[in-house]
Specification:
The structure holds two protein chains of two kinds.
Chain A (H helix, E strand, L loop, with lengths): L17 H6 L4 H9 L2 H11 L11 H6 L10 E6 L8 H8 L1 H15 L3 E6 L4 H16 L15 E6 L9 H8 L23 E5 H13 L1 H6 L1 E2 L2 E2 L1 E8 L5 E6 L4 H6 L13 E5 L7 E3 H5 L11 H4 L3 H4 L7 E6 L4 H15 L5 H18 L7 H12 L7 H25 L1 H6 L14 H5 L1
Parallel strand pairs in A: 1-2, 1-4, 2-3, 7-11
Antiparallel strand pairs in A: 5-6, 7-8, 9-10, 9-11
Helix pairs in contact in A: 2-6, 2-9, 3-6, 5-6, 6-9, 15-16, 15-18, 16-17, 16-18, 17-18
Chain B lengths: L14 H11 L11 H12 L4 H11 L3 H10 L11 E6 L2 H4 L3 H12 L12 E6 L11 E3 L4 E3 L4 H16 L1
Parallel strand pairs in B: 1-2
Antiparallel strand pairs in B: 1-3, 3-4
The chains are: A alpha/beta, B alpha+beta.
Amino acid sequence: MGRKLLLEHINVPGINTFDVYRSKGGYASVEKALKTLSPDDVVEEVKKSGLRGRGGAGFPTGMKWSFLAKPEGVPRYLVCNGDESEPGTFKDRYLMTHIPHLLIEGMIVASYALGAKTSYIYLRGEMMPQIRILERAIAEAKNAGFLGKNILGTGYDLELYVQPGGGAYICGEETALLESLEGKRGNPRIKPPFPAIAGLYGCPTVVNNVESIAAVVPIINEGGDEYAKIGIGRSTGTKLISAGGNLKRPGVYEIELGVPVEDFIYGDDYCQGIANGKRLKAVVAGGSSVPILPANLILKTINNENRLMSYESLSDGGFATGTMLGSGGFIAYDEDQCIVRNTWNFARFYHHESCGQCSPCREGTGWMEKVLHRLEYGHGKMSDMDLLVDVSKKIEGNTICPLGDAAAWPVASAIRHFRDEFEWHVTNPSIAVTNNYGLAHYADPLPKLETAEA
Amino acid sequence: MLSVQNTDAPVTFTPELLGKFADVVSRYPEGKRKSALLPILHLVQAELGWVSAPAMDKVAEYLKIEPIEVYEVATFYTMYFLKPQGKYMLEVCRTGPCEIVGATPIMEHIEKTLGVKEGDVTPDGLFSWRGVECLAACGYGPVLQIGPEYTFYENLTNESVDKLISDLKGKANN
């Protein structure tokens, strides 16, 4: 088992209360930052840590912070993105439910670094229990002098509020989230200007994922250099992985980046293999938006190296044979799962969640859902696979926000790797309604490189 | 098609509810009252069970914005009910990770047990159900939630659903 930086004390009884959290060394990073470091020092530590945004994009957090404009007399905002809606991802809910003070502590340090006097934690509306948990934790922290006016006598003031969304996946996109926080529909904004220049209420704003902000706590406590020693290459630190699907032991795991995928799926410390003694067919490694891979390609790269749980290793091979770490929403599919049905299910999700602003996404997601529905229910044509790829290409890159790409990638990758299963649905329509294609050759030795590149 | 629905029932917000509104509004800078819209619509729905056109008009008046600004938000976000629902709305996650561990059979079981189609209300007014998209509880599926508290029920089986429904019936009749 690797080091735990975020979840070390998760099983301590009462860790959700201020007193117990404090007794385990909680809020030490606030004392250290506010009393001994300048805001720029904090930014520098986060830069040194190599922390990359944990929401899915993987953009370096310290660099994002350093882009924040600081015009005189204009308020700056930190907004925490707790919209967590990417299918397969449930780590932020877990963290906030069990150890809410870790997020509050991170918010205080990050707000101090950015010079924010008011910060918001935006949670998806369905997380009402977590909103109450966080509000209680905020009240406790305020009572202890870690929030409000003149924190710890340092002269720094900060108010922290929790804001519910209304049930919209698109609000996980940072500009849609800001629109929503302003009381509007969650339509993403055209960038530039980026939120760092004109974000909430037109003021300079940083939007960070829950886990990214929580990671600031160990970074400040131990120093950015120490944090950067954990992990592998440019994938530094630990990452929360939400493991779901047909696993023997699903749940949230904190891993040191670089654990082999095979260990993560089958290891005793992690998911302990596939449920009910079945075999692995496919994996979606980073939330529904990332390309799905067959078992052979998730365990090994095309060059026959062990695939690791890191940003670089998971994307090894590009989209031809690789995928992405994304948000760490790890979904395992056993041999009885139907890839066509799953692809239709995801297409329906993106169609449902498209905000409707851009035609390629609004219309394209609807058509992909319709075509996949007919394939799944025995009315597909052999030409449908090329049609789907064609539609997906016309969405990808042609929309204001990445929802279009997120909708296109799962469809394109399913056809890239599982085309024979789609064809089987066309040639065996009545059987495909009741039976599944099965494991086929997806767990077999690696495909030839030429095939993969075609 | 989503549309706002009218009602003849007069809508009044209690002083207690208005107090909660004021608390929400105080979180934003001067002149940014509109930010309170989503939280206030949640409060209205928790109180009235759904958001009717007259209720939205009153919210608009309170926030000093146009009614259309409330309608466009209420119809965009999926959590706001634009027509009356059962006292308990069972929202079952239907997205990928829950689907592969049996969300569809759970929805079929709920439909059979309650005897109403998705989106309809049982004759006693107690229940409705619908499939919703990912609820961020993928490791514990199948999963459903019930507002306005948004309590989660995880690792659902037909038996646990039966027990939940009978518990809720018991609670409602007491």
